[in-house]
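Human: I would love a firmer grasp of how sequence relates to backbone shape in proteins. Take your time, and here it is.
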Amino acid sequence: MITNRKKLMLLSTAFAMGVAGAVQAAGPGLAAGSGPFGINLEAMDANKDGKVTEAEMQTFRAARIAAADTNGDGMMSASELTALHLAQMTKRAEVMAARMIEDLDTDSDGRLSGAEMAARPLPAKIFARVDTDEDGAITQVEVDAAMKKMAEHRGGKGQGYGHGYGEGRGHGGGWFQGLVD
């Protein structure tokens, strides 16, 4: 059964794939990078001397913003920023999917079966950590406690999931979402 949430995820994925293509077409290195901190140093190195100056970085950022400014008004609207972030997330998701297939595809068919996906050790480890009373089931109280513990571990940033930016804001879903969906 396809829920509204799944429909939204499918539509978002399709949209992001289209945006990723548009950002990629705007020029080399304008999508999320692959170097340290997601920075594509090779793409930023305009004079190809193996180093990136602050001026080269600023030029790169300006080109990236210009590519994302789809209406050419010199301003970034919420929809343009959303498209930019979706393109970056799509690139990361593609890398993650390729790694998962590489790591979990035991029959080497280039796809993951339900059994191959279920063999992932992380969800079982997370479930065991959340199930603090070890009764083989998790409750909302245990989930809330685990999320609070994760937030404390992160210094109070985020909600214990995703990549929080402080003040209780995270990117949603994250480490626990796969267990409950």
Observations:
- Residues 19 and 123 are 31 Å apart (CA to CA).
- Confidence is low (pLDDT under 50) at residues 7-33, 159-181.
- Helices lie at 4-25, 41-44, 54-68, 78-104, 114-118, 121-130, 140-153, 174-180.
